[in-house]
Amino acid sequence: MLVQEFLERNAERSPDREALVSGSDRLTYSDLENRANSLAHTLLEEGVKYGDRIAVMMDNTAACVVAIWAALKAGGIFLVINPTTKQNKVEYILNDCRASALITQSSRWKTVSGAVAGTPSIKCTVLAGRINLSGENMPGEIVPWDEALSSPGRRPDIRTIDIDLASLVYTSGTTGNPKGVMMTHRNMVSASTSITTYLENVENDIILNALPLSFDYGLYQVIMAAQFGGKVVLERSFTYPYAVINKLKEEEVTGFPIVPTMLTILLKLKGIAEERFEHLRYITNTAAALPVSHIKAFRRFFPDVTVYSMYGLTECKRVSYLPPDMIDIKPASVGRGMPNEQVYLVDEEGNRIEKPGTPGELVVRGGNVSRGYWGKPEETARILREGKYPWEKVLYTGDIFKMDEDGYLYFISRKDDIIKSRGEKVSPREIENVLYMLDDVMEAVVTGVPDELLGEAIKVYVRLTDGSGLTEKDILRHCAANLEDFMVPQLIELRDSLPRTASGKITKKGI
């Protein structure tokens, strides 16, 4: 099956069902299908070929969703670039994948124009919004959005098969230049099917997505909703949380995907405990494991909402989920492997770990495992290795977990995040969990810094709630009371903010 068949199937069965709400735009499945078909024809007329890469750089809007479906319908491989990405990085990405087309908006033209000018592979740029383009000298044609949607609305004839690439998802580049994770149609259909299975999605579900579509967690909300015939309410961001809360109620939202930073903000909002969301059925979390203290607080405020604590990474989309009935029993766990997938731990020699509670690197086996990194065979070989059978590759995640006797996973750290202090291995995550026990701690990051005596000293960066009187000494005293001596931080720094990736995830780069 191909990813775009999710949309096409619902456009045939339920053409008048509402599929997408974005600002003042309210599109049915028929609307989405027709617009995507028209844009796909325009791309083909401009010279885009089967298997070409089609970049989309737009805000979370209906046009962005149309562009994603159109790229697939044209037989292309889509990639969504965060609209706040700077010019040099945009140019790098476009050239790295040798993009043939870019679909963007006039408000981003200042950034995009320079990047396009430096990308000779571009055959056309589709531009939404009005802008004076006189004097512009760009490779390929510049096609206005309205003109691009004037092509015939019939479905293009394509030759795509399910082992072809459907998308490239560029990582945030925290360890250097960004890498394009290659996802086939089969990868994406497998991942979407597994996730919608354990979420028990039905066509009446309405998902509110405030996550960027350049973030695979946000992107899959659109893909999954099309699979089960539901609706997506698309918000541009979570900048105004009270507006999002109102939208949850107005649109009778049943599903709400979040990341830990969003939950932190929600839990601190005045009056949140008095809010009632009668239609909200579930909330999902991924990107990073939820602190146990946050889970408990959420359960107090939203006792009737099902919480899915999950773990995933771009290279396979999703790995595990914690069954909701286990959230109070194993709140520190990110669950077990999702349907149609197998997970296990290996030691440093690659031997499978059988003893419960023994730390090891997580390995993922399943149809959701990507084909590696675009144009980077050496880095691909590092993460995709021979599996049990000669015909398969499995994903070595680089994440250290332990697994209990019931098969539930507990995140310890990234493999390269382990701090070695006083000859002991220290998990930053364990210290962060202790810090989150303090009510005034909004966000915390733990790192190791070079130290002649200790090897690495443990340094903590903390963002406190506004008006908090908590001091570095208070934090140190709390850590000393709750951690083994070799895990107590030597350095504590209070910050007004912490650096983030384009997807909103806290990053240690730039601290």
Structure description:
- It is globular, with a radius of gyration of 23 Å.
- The strands form seven sheets. Strands 4-3-5-6-7 form a five-stranded parallel sheet, sandwiched between helices. Strands 12-13-14-15-16 form a five-stranded mixed sheet.
- The chain has three domains: 157 residues, 3-Layer(aba) Sandwich (Rossmann fold); 176 residues, ANL, N-terminal domain (Rossmann fold), CATH 3.40.50; 78 residues, GMP Synthetase, Chain A, domain 3 (2-Layer Sandwich), CATH 3.30.300.
- The chain has 14 helices and 26 strands.
- The model has no long low-confidence stretch (mean pLDDT 90).
- It has 511 residues and is an alpha/beta fold.
CATH topology of the largest domain, what is it called?
Rossmann fold
Number of domains: 3
The CATH class name of the largest domain reads Alpha Beta
Alpha-carbon distance between the termini? 44 Å
CATH structural architecture of the largest domain: 3-Layer(aba) Sandwich
Helix content: 25-40%
Instruction: Please state how the strands of the largest beta sheet are arranged side by side.
Output: 4-3-5-6-7
Number of helices: 14
Number of extended strands: 26
Shape: globular
Taking the sheet with the most strands, its summary is: 5 strands, parallel
The proportion of strand residues reads 25-35%
The overall pLDDT, averaged over residues, is 90
| Model regions low in confidence, pLDDT < 50 over at least 5 residues | none
Radius of gyration: 23 Å
